[in-house]
Specification:
Blueprint: H1 3-17, H2 37-49, H3 55-68, H4 73-79, E1 92-93, E2 96-97, H5 98-114, H6 118-124, H7 132-142, H8 165-175, H9 201-209, H10 220-233, H11 241-250
Antiparallel strand pairs: 1-2
Helix pairs in contact: 1-11, 2-8, 6-7, 9-11
């Protein structure tokens, strides 16, 4: 396949999968429940944090998270009392437990009170064509609060060669425009050109079959390699191809 043919093929798959139908089975449905900016970004961040494993289980548990936060995530984050956190203790999604959930609520409160909010933290360290350094500094800021070491594993660090799939997915949700009612596009200080592909087993395998990725591990170096290849296809919105790669892998068993 020539580069032109590859682009045409992938563009057609983006067209196919970048549609509201996609939301029905995806955790992006959770932030779509809200209209207030801070509610959307907190719901998105928490849903993306637990987005590994069975998709039905992810969606069910993300909905449960919102119920535990009284369907007002920002108000809960900012105004909770210590006693309000007790009801979060039984929560569990795989290795993310109630202690982690409580720590994340306190970390989010810290981000809004001391760092001017989620968008501000990521924008502060953004590079022209990458947010990977931003993720590193976000993690540092998030864990300035008292926490158990084990909770740190739930936010990946690309500067330690992690693919940081879930947080790259969250950034895609927040930054890509809401042209097709899929991504939310509420962060205007960042551009889709700065995003990286949320690399997982499905998108990685498809990318290798299409010759977009040579590296065998799904790690930070693979993300950088795939980013470079996707930017050649569309430098302004490279991450739109996440829909194509993911759809080909999950729905078409490409």
């Amino acid at each position: 396949m020539t580069k032109k043919e590859l682009k045409e093929f992938l563009d057609s798959k983006v067209e196919l999968y970048n549609k509201p139908d996609f939301i029905d089975s995806d955790p992006i449905q959770i932030p779509h429940l809200f209209t207030k900016k801070e509610d959307i970004e907190i719901a998105g961040f928490l849903s993306a944090t637990i987005a590994w494993g069975n998709r039905k289980s992810i969606n069910k548990n993300a909905h449960q998270m919102m119920q535990l936060l009284d369907q007002s995530p920002f108000d809960f984050v900012i105004n909770h009392q210590e006693s309000d956190l007790e009801k979060l203790e039984p929560f569990v999604h795989r290795t993310f437990n109630g202690i982690d959930f409580i720590t994340f609520i306190k970390g989010l409160q810290h981000i809004y009170q001391k760092h001017k909010g989620l968008e501000s933290v990521f924008a502060k360290h953004a590079q022209k064509d990458s947010l990977q350094t931003s993720i590193h500094y976000f993690k540092q800021a998030f864990f300035e609060i008292e926490h158990l070491q084990r909770t740190q594993k739930h936010i990946s660090d690309p500067l330690k060669n992690s693919a940081a799939k879930r947080i790259n997915m969250f950034l895609r949700w927040m930054v890509r425009p809401n042209n097709t009612n899929v991504d939310l596009g509420i962060w205007k200080s960042l551009s889709p050109a700065q995003l990286s592909c949320p690399l997982d087993v499905h998108s990685g395998n498809v990318a290798r079959k299409l010759g977009l990725l040579q590296r065998k591990q799904n790690d930070g170096k693979a993300v950088a390699e795939l980013d470079a290849a996707l930017r050649q296809l569309d430098s302004q919105d490279p991450v739109k191809y996440d829909f194509a790669l993911f759809g080909l892998g999950v729905f078409e068993k490409f």
